[in-house]
Amino acid sequence: MLLYVTVGTNDLERAGRFYDAVLPLLGYRRQKQAQGEIGYGADDDVRCRFWVVEPFNREPATFGNGVTVALDAPSRAAVDEFHAAVLSNGGTDEGAPGIRPYHQDFYAAFVRDLDGNKLSIVCERPE
């Protein structure tokens, strides 16, 4: 259903360093960079699915209360590794890795990036 997702930043270079460090743990790498934006995608994808952007209107980037971008992880270990990588790269914890009440195999962690954007890293596969 989703074509791509964007998150805003007030410092594209800093955000790029952050996402370059954490997104490869989920199989995504920087695919494109242009004025005001960086795109990430999987090697076999036809387009970037995750973009970090400076707002088009030139106003400061802000995060939305209630907005969460959920990223699929291939394993529970990948959720743990991503959570640890986010914290070691300056992000903040919003919920340590663990089973959530949505169903028996919903293993997730919640974090915020350097601009306050909330991310959920989820593995729905049995251990």
Automatic annotation (TrEMBL):
Q: Which PROSITE patterns match?
A: VOC (PS51819)
One Pfam family, please name it: Glyoxalase
Stretches assigned to the VOC domain: 1-124
Q: Which domain of life is it from?
A: Bacteria
Tell me the InterPro entries matching this sequence.
Glyas_Bleomycin-R_OHBP_Dase, Glyas_Fos-R_dOase_dom, VOC_core
**Name under which the protein is recorded:** VOC family protein
Organism of origin: Mycoplana ramosa
Lineage, please? Bacteria, Pseudomonadati, Pseudomonadota, Alphaproteobacteria, Hyphomicrobiales
